[in-house]
Amino acid sequence: MELAARVAHMRGTGGNGWGILYRARAMIAAGEQVVMLTIGEPDVRTDPAILAAMAQSAANGHTGYTDIPGIPALRAEIAARVTARTGVETRAENVLVTPGGQAALYTAHQVLLDPGHAGLYISPFYPTYPGTIRASGAEARAVEARAEAGFQPAKADILAASAGARTLLINSPNNPTGVIYTPDTIAGIAGACTEADLWLISDEVYETQVWEGPAISPRSLPGMAERTVVLGSLSKSHAMTGSRIGWMVAPEAVIDAAHELAINTTYGVPGFIQDAALFALRRGAGFEAAVAAPFGRRRDIVRDVMAGSPVVGLTHPAGAMYAMLDIRRTGLSGEAFAARLLDEEKIAVMPGESFGAPAAGHLRIALTLEDGALEAALLRLRAFAEALAG
Asked: What region holds the Aminotransferase class I/classII large domain (predicted)?
């Protein structure tokens, strides 16, 4: 008996590069003390008031089938949020509620790509990006954003890779680099999509974690609303990773196709989770700022600790909950450095190679430890790197 080839195609030929994470977890399970700076999981839990709203909704009976594209009130709330943030009129009919941002990412590629197409994505990249493209049967094709250019993708590189492509996937504020694409970069991306007739998929799950702006949604640029799909989520903005609640915003024809896909896959999102999401969004910008604030503080800690290091460089972190460190002066790859750091200092970080070739020789640090513990770990990391460099 054989399995369908589509999953092997989705997986691709390379590994996911997360061996350090799995090894660190095994060490912890064996009783070792390991400082984890690996995963973008907020170190605060979902606010009790949101959980209470979820429980009350379930107790009130919202536990059956729901409107598959999302309950009307939540779709309208998301549409109003997007309108207010971008200035682009957005209606509930432009919104599909999904079980997390990952499902929105998968859905977007399923409804926009066919076998024989190519889907572009910017590298460095979140590790599931190429897999969601390949899951459609399409070719996943990387466009490199180079460290020497501050990990800002160039219009010319997008166009050079665009033959046979139908989509381009971007992420700003960016995981893994912490970079926010500049207005010029966003304009170049929009221009490339127009010239090459590409759909633009804009992953904006870190939209509330902006330390130095602006963070521009490309959907707000002239002529881009009709070719842009925006992905959103409450995982980072409201510390609701386990609730699995996200959305996509797109032209109505895209939402109609995504609705048809949802009928045959997820069949919607539980009503009590949607009610909790509606409650969470209505708590307003002040609540979101309070959830984001620790990561902004920790961004400053990283800058202070690494300032003046002759060995460790820091890509300027303007947003998101990560910092990208350049350790090439140690003479080690990111993978080799991360392995030694785990073995010798019991600190787990993600090697840049996990996120694509342009991040080789770098480390991604998740800013998910309490401030004092993070600072202590970073001081140890800096000292370790400087000792390696002699």
From this structure: 33-379
